[in-house]
Amino acid sequence: xxxxxxxxxxxxxxxxxxxxDYVQTRGSSLVFAxxxxxxxxxxHFPGFRTTLSFDPAQPEAGxxxxxIPLATATTNNPDYDPEMRGPSFLDVARFATARYTAHGFxxxxxxxxxxxxxxxxxxxxxxxxxxxxxxxxxxxxxxxRATVPRLAFxxxxxxxxxxxxxxxDISVSTRVVxxxxx
Length: 182
Known about the structure:
The chain is mainly beta. The protein has a single domain (19-180), classed as Lipocalin (Beta Barrel), CATH 2.40.128. Helix content is 9%, strand content 46%. It contains two helices and eleven strands; from the N terminus they run H-E-E-E-E-E-H-E-E-E-E-E-E. Strands 1-4-5-6-8-9-10-11 form an eight-stranded antiparallel β-barrel.
């Protein structure tokens, strides 16, 4: 092998591997859960959209962006949903979209990853960590969980600010089925 070709191959092997770019596809879900007066409730955001740049061998180069149209939030309970979308909670008339962004992930000891990102919700930006697993394949899957302290975002005003009615921490879980970005 000529020396210049060998040098080129050695240089190419030392260059960082580019993260693959993905977009969300069918079969994805974004779910929230908590309790109301001690009774569990769950809901979901059917209209959310995710883009991801990720290589599990170089998680620090990862990038995640999620857009969540808040008016799509539903618990499928006609008593809860109008109140949840109203001014005391999500106030979708003033805050139509929430966004989660994370740049650079961490590999955890148990094979999972952590995205230390920022959630922009209800006009407030706060750090939120998403821990997730990665299942590679033709359609890779990111499955993750986070805890959102609702009061830090001003979610639940007046009587709804009481943590005896609805605890502060709302659990969020996601399963994002991905396809290579076009």
